[in-house]
Design goal:
Shape: globular
Helix content: over 70%
Strand content: under 5%
Order of helices and strands: HHHHHHH
């Protein structure tokens, strides 16, 4: 096994470690006795796992060690870390947690996209899913939201409209605005990927009800 693949496996192994630290910190918050050491342990574990993403890719290119196993493991590790962070910080009672609807939206989008990929592959024999800027933006914003919740900077959890005297009854945090924008991009990117999958199915001839598509692909 290559060094890059070992680092990727180590990143996967760090996911449950992060989840445990996050859960125990959340239990302390719920009991009224938050242990900041546990929060920073969770932050450090997550940061280490995220940093290893770039390291394994660099080593694979540098040492010419790209393998089929690495191609499979790397996106699993990336998506697993991101989803674990979103789900954990939505349900584990952190002081400034992510809303539950956000976790449901992210998981639903990923399940829908994965289902579409499987369906297109079953019909077409291959899938050409090109990364879209909305998907990249959604992923970046999801990571930014996670980072904000974990680090809890004062400006992010402060009221967004505190300086607007004509809106005295609206109390929305900057974090709420960030999560809402992230949710919008997550939803839009999901529809974009599903639309591309449907277009691929039509190009293969399976979307032609007359049966005259011939099953040919472009």
């Amino acid at each position: 096994m290559t060094i890059a693949n070992k680092i990727t496996l180590a990143r996967i192994g760090l996911i449950p470690v992060f989840v445990l630290f996050a859960i125990y910190y959340g239990q302390g918050v719920l009991a009224g006795d938050p242990q900041e050491a546990l929060r920073w342990a969770a932050v450090g574990t997550f940061a280490l796992a995220a940093a290893s993403d770039g390291l394994d890719g660099w080593l694979a290119r540098r040492l010419n060690q790209r393998t089929e196993l690495g191609v499979v493991l790397d996106p699993i590790a990336d998506k697993g870390l991101l989803l674990a962070g979103i789900l954990t910080l939505s349900f584990c009672h952190w002081t400034n947690a992510l809303p539950v609807w956000f976790a449901v939206l992210v998981v639903a989008r990923d399940v829908a996209v994965l289902t579409g990929i499987v369906g297109v592959f079953a019909l077409h024999g291959k899938v050409n899913l090109r990364p879209h800027w909305t998907g990249k933006t959604a992923t970046a914003l999801q990571m930014l939201s996670l980072t904000g919740v974990m680090l809890q900077p004062e400006w992010l959890v402060a009221p967004c409209f505190s300086g607007w005297p004509w809106m005295p009854f609206v109390w929305v945090r900057n974090l709420d605005v960030l999560v809402f924008v992230t949710g919008v991009f997550t939803l839009v990117s999901g529809f974009g990927y599903l639309g591309e999958g449907i277009a691929q199915a039509h190009r293969s001839g399976h979307g032609d009800p007359s049966g005259q598509g011939g099953g040919k692909s472009d």
